[in-house]
């Protein structure tokens, strides 16, 4: 093809001449093409800047950007990726060029995702203390504070649940009383189950079937003790958890 045809293609693609020269070199040398595709971004000056970073965390690979890792100027990653040897951390690389970091790869996703979008997301199979350990190692103070707050909220919720008792009551009544019984059930009592026990529990000539109504209610520990002391004979507590 003619020279004018080449420039016509370049104009259509809106590519500057310096970048075109680089691409043509890579087409002639496959090794240079591989180097170009190994995580580089062009800038407005036509220069190429390495942006993508490969991490080997405990044998598992993660790929992200320098921008993501270097958001916190006091973090492990910020020092790791500095060009100045006097401030950069001396960390080995594996045969693929990935930084070798001897940490638990299972707990790294919460760290990396926080750096990406600023939110703490912990999978159900992970515990907060494990994430806190990694956040402290990587020295990400904002994340450390966030995980500590999450642990505090979890412990407070657990403590509240331990101080709550669920009380079950079994109420015996006749078939003719079921409507009234259900309509008057209040004061925090929750319907659980109705069991038909037949008429063989009757001690009169009344041939109506009888039922057992099972209800439950949550009590604070002090309310629970008072409820035990004040139970009447008709409503019996048969189980609590």
UniProtKB/TrEMBL annotation:
<dbReference type="GO" id="GO:0051260">
    <property type="term" value="P:protein homooligomerization"/>
</dbReference>
<dbReference type="GO" id="GO:0031463">
    <property type="term" value="C:Cul3-RING ubiquitin ligase complex"/>
</dbReference>
<dbReference type="InterPro" id="IPR003131">
    <property type="entry name" value="T1-type_BTB"/>
</dbReference>
<dbReference type="InterPro" id="IPR011333">
    <property type="entry name" value="SKP1/BTB/POZ_sf"/>
</dbReference>
<dbReference type="InterPro" id="IPR000210">
    <property type="entry name" value="BTB/POZ_dom"/>
</dbReference>
<feature type="domain" description="BTB">
    <location>
        <begin position="51"/>
        <end position="124"/>
    </location>
</feature>
<dbReference type="GO" id="GO:0097602">
    <property type="term" value="F:cullin family protein binding"/>
</dbReference>
<dbReference type="Pfam" id="PF02214">
    <property type="entry name" value="BTB_2"/>
</dbReference>
<protein>
    <submittedName>
        <fullName>BTB POZ domain-containing KCTD5 isoform X2</fullName>
    </submittedName>
</protein>
<dbReference type="GO" id="GO:0005737">
    <property type="term" value="C:cytoplasm"/>
</dbReference>
<dbReference type="GO" id="GO:0043161">
    <property type="term" value="P:proteasome-mediated ubiquitin-dependent protein catabolic process"/>
</dbReference>
């Amino acid at each position: 093809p003619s020279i004018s045809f080449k420039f016509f293609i370049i104009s259509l693609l809106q590519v500057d001449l310096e970048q075109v020269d680089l691409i043509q070199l890579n087409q002639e040398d496959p090794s240079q093409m591989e180097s170009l595709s190994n995580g580089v971004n062009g800038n407005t000056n036509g220069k190429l800047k390495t942006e993508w970073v490969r991490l080997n965390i405990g044998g598992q690979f993660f790929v992200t950007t320098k921008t993501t890792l270097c958001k916190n100027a006091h973090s492990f990653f910020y020092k790791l990726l500095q060009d100045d040897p006097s401030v950069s951390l001396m960390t080995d690389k594996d045969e693929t060029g990935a930084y070798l970091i001897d940490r638990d790869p299972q707990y790294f996703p919460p760290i990396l995702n926080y750096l990406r979008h600023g939110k703490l997301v912990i999978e159900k199979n992970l515990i907060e203390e494990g994430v806190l350990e990694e956040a402290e190692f990587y020295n990400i103070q904002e994340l450390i504070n966030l995980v500590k707050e999450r642990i505090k909220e979890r412990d407070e919720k657990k403590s509240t649940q331990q101080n709550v008792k669920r009380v079950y009551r079994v109420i015996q009544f006749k078939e003719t009383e079921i409507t009234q019984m259900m309509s008057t059930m209040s004061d925090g009592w929750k319907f659980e189950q109705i069991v038909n026990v037949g008429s063989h529990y009757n001690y009169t000539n009344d041939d109506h079937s009888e039922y057992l109504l099972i209800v439950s209610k949550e009590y604070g520990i002090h309310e629970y003790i008072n409820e035990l002391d004040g139970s009447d004979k008709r409503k019996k507590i048969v189980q609590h958890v």
